[in-house]
Amino acid sequence: MEQVNVYGQVFTKEMYTFLMNSFKESFSHASLSVERAFEEVKNCEITQKRMKDEKSYEYYQLLSNEKKKEIDEFLKYCTICRGHQFGILVGTFDHNISSEKVKELFQKHFPYMLEDMHYILRFTKDGELDKRETFMDTREMFRTCFEKQAAQEKAKNMEKDHRRAFDYALGLKEIGIKEIIKINEMINHSDPNREVGFKKTDNMITGASLHVEAKESTPYKMQELLRDYQEHYKLEMKDYKEETISPTEKHKRLLAIYEQEALFHIHFIKIHPFADGNGRTARILTNKHLIDQGLPPVLITNYMIEEYKEYISSIDYKGLAKMMLASSSQLLSNWVSIQKLGVFLTPEEGISYSTK
């Protein structure tokens, strides 16, 4: 059976693939940019919750199917009207639009809105639909539904782009300038305003007090960084897998590898070579380097982010190295525990437990 060795721990190929897929899912989500996109979704959900009237929804559910159909047709009509008002649908709204055209446009552009619209229905004391009041309330619900849908698509696309870029990097034998540019391009694939290649204007690091390189010096600084990494950093590394060395020496050599990666990581961030996605690109490169050396990858989580920024701001590569080593060690410990529990993949891609 094919096996994979990660820092002395042996995993079956199937188990390693499962563990890496789980890591990739967490890694693609654990980015400030991706998390901000998901935060937008949460904010829209909070706004929606404040607008929703549970009693209106419950009353709607008690109505006959015929009455529900009539109300749904009205809500679809209101939604198409709002779509024109917000400029999402081209042209001016035709008040004499046919019910078939309304249905067609609704299914094409706004099918996700109907369920939420049921919560802002307004009824008279006689139990009839108050069309005027309901129409007035569709404005904010439409805007929030649309913004939530756009935020969800953005967040999911960013996750997907990040994972594709990471998979691309893992499949590379060597990484040069061209490959790094490609990784960044893939990270920003779904951004309609993305810039391809190195930055065209000077930029800055959000949340970190570190001066970044000017756009004019970026190509040279990137070539210099890669040359130093390939010709100096890696050549100075001693093999941590030597069987004859002591545990103390092994840890020392291991920490030296993480210090090398932290130094590369900080210098990359300091250059800040791209208009967007610099942090994501840097973390993909760091994990590619670690995995290539038979080490577990690093996951910078929310609770670590302020400390991570501080290490970068102060160019403290030793502190960052210790953080990265601790993250890698924790991940490996989790992987070993999962393997001991006998977790394996079923044909349906779900998790099951061995009965042995």
Short description:
The protein has 13 helices and four strands. By secondary structure, the chain is mainly α. The strands form two sheets. It has a two-stranded antiparallel ribbon. A two-stranded antiparallel sheet has the order 3-4.
Give structural attributes.
356 residues; mainly alpha; Fic-like fold; 2 domains; two-stranded antiparallel ribbon; 13 helices
Structure description:
It is a single chain. Helix content is 63%, strand content 4%. It is mainly alpha-helical. The strands form two sheets. It has a two-stranded antiparallel ribbon with strand order 1-2. Strands 3-4 form a two-stranded antiparallel sheet. The chain is elongated and about 85 Å long. The two termini are 18 Å apart. 28% of the residues are buried. Mean pLDDT is 90; it is low at 345-356.
Architecture blueprint of SSEs:
Elements: E1 3-6, E2 9-12, H1 13-29, H2 32-51, H3 54-62, H4 65-85, H5 99-109, H6 114-117, H7 131-170, H8 177-187, H9 218-233, H10 247-271, H11 278-292, H12 305-313, H13 317-341, E3 343-345, E4 351-353
Antiparallel strand pairs: 1-2, 3-4
Helix pairs in contact: 1-7, 2-7, 4-5, 4-7, 7-8, 7-11, 8-11, 9-10, 10-11, 10-13, 12-13
